[in-house]
Amino acid sequence: MDSNLGFLRESLSNHIENHKICQRIYNKLEQNNYANEDEFVRDLEENEATILNLVLQYELDYARNEQDEERVQQLNGVYELLLV
After folding, report:
1. Orientation angle between helical segments 46-65 and 20-31, nearest 10 degrees
2. Long-range pairs for 2-5 at CB < 8 Å and ≥24 separation?
3. Chain segment 62-72, per-residue pLDDT in tens
4. CB contact set of 63 (below 8 Å; sequence gap of 6+)
5. Pfam families annotated for this entry (predicted)?
6. 67-81: buried (b, 16+ CB within 10 Å) or exposed (e) per residue?
7. Diameter of the chain by CA atoms?
8. pLDDT per residue over 31-58, tens digit each?
9. Mapped to the 3 state alphabet, what secondary structure does the chain carry?
């Protein structure tokens, strides 16, 4: 699995108990062997992309506050693709 997607899966695991769409996105990551984050983002439904955008904003803010630059960089790779 692409390292950006690995960080994303880990971040999503923080939200799957409270959000069914996060669970669905997490399941996609688990069940599909995406070659890269671009392939993953293209496979998202519109509502999944919207929720993932919100989750990533939260997770990126958290990573910045913790000064975890590696996590910021990895998650930002997926976040930027959602904005295109």
Report:
1. 90
2. 2/34, 2/35, 2/36, 2/37, 2/40, 3/74, 4/36, 4/37, 4/74, 4/75, 4/77, 4/78, 5/29, 5/34, 5/36, 5/37, 5/40, 5/78
3. 999 999 999 99
4. 69, 71, 72, 75
5. CsgA
6. eeeebbebbebbbeb
7. 32
8. 999 999 899 999 999 999 999 999 999 9
9. CCHHHHHHHHHHCCCCCCCHHHHHHHHHHHHCCCCCHHHHHHCCCHHHHHHHHHHHHHHHHHHHHCCCHHHHHHHHHHHHHHHC
Domain boundaries, given as residue ranges, for the chain: 3-83
Q: Is the pTM of this model over 0.90?
A: no
Supply 25's token pair: 């996105």
